[in-house]
Design a protein that fits this description.
single chain; alpha/beta; seven-stranded mixed beta sheet; five-stranded parallel beta sheet; 8 helices
Length: 298
């Protein structure tokens, strides 16, 4: 039986693995290879990297560090999680695992706009998914925010911190933007374009053109997808974990969920979606797991 199985090898999961390894705990990390952080072309707000660091490079460094301290990291899929006497049973694509504790660092999936070549554009930084992460890089540029509701509207308002030319490309029903929200958009100087996107032409340097019909096109330097995310909570739900109103996992101050011994950290927990906060939550969870097991004489 492992002391802990960590599900997910993003910033939260790998930080927890580093800490648990240094606590001399027997741990295993199961990852699908689909960490959201791996999609980041260059993160410029992560402490310690003044020139920025790519998501894949950061994860590779963290993985190497975790393995140095004894973490076993395997690629696979966890299909089921059950609470059993003395801990948990996990059914994975590679077989069955038993653990005294489990840390869920399963993250979220971005809801991307239905645009041909969207994945490639995200990799190039032409379509962005996190205004907190890289809004600074839009200073003095033309920015479009694609969305269907007030979540996208408030992202557009936030981006006025950096750009004087921000437009909300609203593809939802007019009623999905309240009168109060529209007033805030107007006060912030955000243009509202209410039209479906017919096509997007991408080039190497910018979103070349967004077409709203045969005779309407607008040019932007970058485009934000303000469509929200889908938390990966399926395993937690099977184990009976309580969710909040946004569909994320409810945790206490030490990252423990409503199921004793089952912890969670990173984007699946709260909505800030930042590498630094995910790492902090992984460290908090790992420390509490170690103290919990030590108090039980394990």
């Amino acid at each position: 039986m492992d002391d802990c199985v960590v599900v997910g090898a993003g910033p939260a999961g790998l930080t927890a693995a580093i800490y648990l390894g240094r606590f001399r705990r027997k741990l295993r990390v199961v990852e699908s290879g689909a960490s959201r952080a791996a999609r980041i072309p260059l993160s410029r707000n992560h402490p310690g990297f003044p020139d920025g660091v790519g998501g894949e490079e950061l994860l590779a460094r963290m993985r190497q560090q975790a393995e140095k301290y004894g973490a076993e990291i395997e690629t696979g899929r966890v299909d089921d999680l059950q609470v059993v006497e003395g801990g948990f049973r996990l059914m994975t694509s590679g077989g069955e695992l038993a653990a005294r504790t489990v840390l869920l660092a399963t993250g979220v999936v971005d809801i991307e706009p239905d645009i041909p070549g969207a994945a490639e554009a995200v990799a190039k930084g032409l379509i962005r998914i996190c205004p907190i992460c890289d809004g600074y890089e839009t200073i003095g540029t033309r920015v479009g925010v694609v969305g269907r509701d007030e979540h996208a509207a408030y992202e557009a308002i936030f981006l006025r911190t950096y750009s004087d030319e921000v437009a909300l490309i609203h593809g939802g029903k007019p009623s999905e933007l309240s009168a109060a929200c529209r007033a805030e958009l107007a006060a912030a100087g955000v243009e509202v374009i209410e039209a479906p996107i017919d096509s997007v032409v991408l080039d190497q340097e910018r979103i070349a053109a967004i077409c709203f019909g045969s005779d309407r096109a607008r040019r932007f330097d970058s485009l934000y997808a303000g469509l929200g995310v889908r938390p990966r909570t399926e395993l937690a739900v099977r184990a009976g974990v309580k969710l909040d109103d946004s569909g994320r996992l409810v945790v206490g101050e030490h990252q423990e969920t409503s199921v004793p011994g089952l912890y969670a950290g990173g984007d699946v927990v709260r909505g800030l979606n930042q590498i630094s906060t995910a790492e902090a939550e992984g460290a908090i969870a790992a420390t509490d797991i170690h103290n919990r097991l030590r108090a039980a004489g394990l």
